Amino acid sequence: MVYPEEPFWALPMVSGLYEDRDYRVNVVEALQEFWQMKQTRGVELKNGALVIYESIPSNSQPYVCFVTLPGGSCFGSFQNCPTKAEARRSSAKIALMNSVFNEHPSRRISDEFIEKAVQDARASFKGTPQNNELPESGIGAFRFMLEANKGRTMLEFQELMTVFQLLHWNGSLKAMRERQCSRQEVVAHYSNRSLDDEMRAQMALDWIAREQENPGVLRRELVLAERELETARMAGRELRFPKEKKDILMIAHNQLGGSNLGAASIEN
C-alpha cells in the first residue's frame, strides 16, 4: 500500500478538480471520478462506482472518517483532523493514492503474484509446511481464491478476501470443513455474496453465543479489534478487515445491551 506524506498533490490545472484555485487536487471529487472512469472503461464493479464515506460521530476533534471503495477496500483519515470536512479529505487522499497505485501491473493478480502472496501467507502461518498445502487448509483456500480471480487487481478483490478473512476469524471456515464442505463449494457460495448487514448479523450471533458461554470474551476481542483498527488507520493502511471485525463485535455488544462492555468503546 502507499502511505501519504503531503496533504495534496501538485498537478497540472484541470477544471473542476482543484480547491481555492491553488492547483491542488480536490481529492474527494477526484476519487469519485477515478472510479467512475474505471467503470466506463468496462471494469466490472458489482456494487457500482459509488465511493461511500462514513464519519464517526463525535462532538469534538480529532474527527475520523472512513471511505469504502467500490472494490471493497477501506481507508480512513490518518491525520488529527480539526473538522469533519478535513477528515473526509484525509480519507479520500489515502484512498486516491492507493487507487492510482493499484493500476500498476504489479497489483494485478497473476501467477507470479499468487506465488508471492502464498509465500507471504505461509511465512505467517503456524502450521506445518505439509498442512499448508492441504486443499482444506487456510493457505490452500487462499491460493484457490487468488487463482479464481486472476486478472483482477487487489483493490477489486478486497471484498471477497475480507469475507474469507472474517470467516476464518469467526470460526466459520473450520465449521464448514467439519461439515465436509469443499473449498470449491465454499468459494463459489461466498463469491456471489456481498459483505452486507445480513452476513454481519449472522457473525454477531456467533459472538453473542461465545459471550454467553464465556463471559468477557466479547469485550476482550472488541478491545483488540479497536486497537488494531486505530493503529492501522493512523498508519494509512487498508482497513476493511479490522473495521468489519469491530463493526460485527459492536453489533453483538449492542444486542447484549452493552452491559459491562463500556470500557471497550473507542475514543473519538
TrEMBL record:
GO biological process: autophagosome maturation
Any one Gene Ontology cellular component term annotated for this protein: cytoplasm
Pfam families (UniProt xref): LIX1 (PF14954)
Family classification: Belongs to the LIX1 family.
The name this protein goes by in its record: Protein limb expression 1 homolog
Origin species: Drosophila hydei (Fruit fly)
Name of the coding gene: LOC111592614
